[in-house]
Design brief:
Radius of gyration: 25 Å
Shape: rod-shaped
CATH architecture: Orthogonal Bundle
CATH superfamily: Winged helix-like DNA-binding domain superfamily/Winged helix DNA-binding domain
CATH class: Mainly Alpha
Strand content: 5-15%
CATH topology: Arc Repressor Mutant, subunit A
Largest sheet: 3 strands, antiparallel
Number of helices: 5
Order of helices and strands: HHEHHEEH
Distance between the termini: 59 Å
Helix content: 55-70%
Length: 123
């Protein structure tokens, strides 16, 4: 398992993934590199708005930019997604283990004979 990414980096990845437009941009880039204008074309928002979404994706490390003349090309970098997924899986394993231990304690308690609470007399 990879080491836990810094909290700020995880925050940036989750912020980036929280928006439907940014997820759509990532889906488009998963098919390969594209010019910014190509990425922006399907959206019914301004190029400036798409650029803001792209900057959030770049800050999270999910998108890299390459310039060739006047054209800006974007590519997906899946490493932050992998790191976030690894972190989520480690948390899932941690909590699954805790829940299993709790269930075992509850099962054990259910299987043992009931004792009356202290101070309560039996008839």
């Amino acid at each position: 398992m990879s080491k836990t990414p810094p909290s700020g980096q995880l925050d940036d990845v989750f912020v980036a993934l929280a928006d439907e437009t940014r997820r759509a941009i990532l889906a488009r880039l998963s098919a390969g590199e594209a010019r910014v204008t190509e990425v922006a074309a399907p959206f019914d928002i301004s190029l400036n708005s798409v650029s803001k979404h792209i900057r959030i994706l770049e800050r999270a490390g999910l998108v890299t930019r390459r310039r060739s003349g006047r054209d800006h090309y974007l590519s997906l970098d899946p490493r932050p997604l992998t790191e976030a997924s690894d972190w989520l899986q480690s948390r899932q394993r941690f909590w699954a283990g805790r829940v299993q231990r709790l269930q075992a304690l509850l099962d054990e308690e259910d299987a043992s004979p009931r004792k009356p609470p202290s101070g309560v007399r039996r008839p």
